[in-house]
């Protein structure tokens, strides 16, 4: 076997186990592979040019940054990510304990630090920016998944407060990757579009927003992470507003309020990018309206709040109609014969909202006001 063939097999296997693990964490199924199922080495830190040059032997690995630096760094975290996935999705009816969760959290953070150290030499290479950002988002997604099961309980049980705090901070980091112009990312406030106006559609700088484009236009692992932010952060904000419970108007935590507003703009951009489901935009509009309703305090009239929420939902739905009609017209002009195939609902795009909504009922703070 030639050095090129051997190295390509290692790279292909590395891709297979990564896809398998991501599918498990995304769909909630147990991992299909374990560390004892294979003995393949990780790919070498070898530039493509060295492989295709017709060498009779594989060059020795070196510490210089190459195209394989990010995949190798992620492969180094595979064992702990596999542990997290098994802990969450294994077919064990008893489930794990919170102490085990904290132990996994410690192990995961150590692996995360090592990944950051190994990728530090790539910080000044524009060509590696997308790969390094994606690697960090992948790690944050696993860490968020580890603490997500305790979020609802943490709202009422102080024993899980650590998980609540970690989850919120991790999701804010994920949001900064999803929406680089976010006000919480330290960018100019003017660059962050308002949730009540059409977001700008001018092409972003590729080196800055490639990952954001992939999240907005794609589906699956990365899109689900953004969908989790879209509901968990507003839920945290609403819980804090309720806990405040003062006699006067309630004050907002600025970063959570900013994300809640920006989620609406992001949901609209997803529709502009081709999303044909209005679920995301409709729910984000209702969450923004619910935030405003909660700010009025507990003394506000419940019937009036119900009418306000219903009205905001109707406005959001009506706003979607012209955009969807324009999408249909553009599709007809593009290829009349392929209208059904191209415009049909994509399971990959809509299932992310279905999965998230099933865990986070957005209007749960007003159980007696909505018919």
Automatic annotation (TrEMBL):
Entry protein name: Putative c6 transcription
Organism: Diaporthe ampelina
Keyword terms, alphabetized: DNA-binding, Metal-binding, Nucleus, Transcription, Transcription regulation, Zinc
Highest taxon, organism lineage: Eukaryota
Entry keyword annotation includes Zinc: yes
TM region positions: none
InterPro entries membership: Fungal_TF_Env_Response
GO function terms (MF aspect): DNA-binding transcription activator activity, RNA polymerase II-specific; metal ion binding; RNA polymerase II cis-regulatory region sequence-specific DNA binding
Keyword Transport: no
